[in-house]
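Our consortium's second objective concerns turning raw sequence data into structural hypotheses that experimental partners can test. To show how far this objective has progressed, the report includes one record in full. It was chosen at random from the queue rather than selected for favorable results. The single chain below, 225 residues long, was entered without modification.
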Amino acid sequence: MSERLNTLSLAAVMAATVLLALPASAQKIVCWKDKSGKVIGCGDRVPPEYRQNESKTLDSRGITRETKVSAEEAARLREEEKKKAALKAEEDRRIAEQRRQDTALINTYTAAKEIDVRRDRELQVVDLQIQQLQAQLKNAADAHNSQKARYASFEKRGKIPDNVRDDLRNAAAAEENVKARIADREKDKERIAASYAAQKARYIELKGGAAPGSVPAEAKPAPKK
């Protein structure tokens, strides 16, 4: 704090000295700082070597009329403004997209139960795919077991041909591939359920129903008398 006061006092003294030396018609001065922010001079113009630094222009009464930030600070402020503008643009896009989705939601359904019907229809399609994959998994598992038995037979003889090793490895990979596809379909079911749950909650909210997470009036405890 004392260092800042000393700096301000130095600036005031330097400004007053320069003002006294200037003619009445030109009593407006500028004080400039070094890169550390310390006032190092005052006059009618900033020396070329300090024009990238912070400076202040004072009138004849010593009142600051203009402040010029340093080139580094100006660059920082520009970068900050760019980030703010980018965030605002992203928020505007998000709001516009939400409005688009809300409009589509209201125009697609006439009642919340229709959302459940569409969800169940999509889940049934995925369930059918899983059933088909489970049949493929059984065939793949049978083929894998067959190759394991074949491999064991050659292993007992003491020599395993390369094609037998390859067939076993391919059979194992085929079984794992079908298992992975089934796992993906199970994840699809979770995604579908979550998506339609969010749509339903938003639809009810847009239609003026209870906001998601709110407690119905009848479920709230009666006030104490």
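The partners drew two points from this record. Residues 112-157 form the longest helix (46 residues). The chain has three domains: 2-70, 77-105, 109-210. Both points have been shared with the crystallography group to help prioritize constructs.
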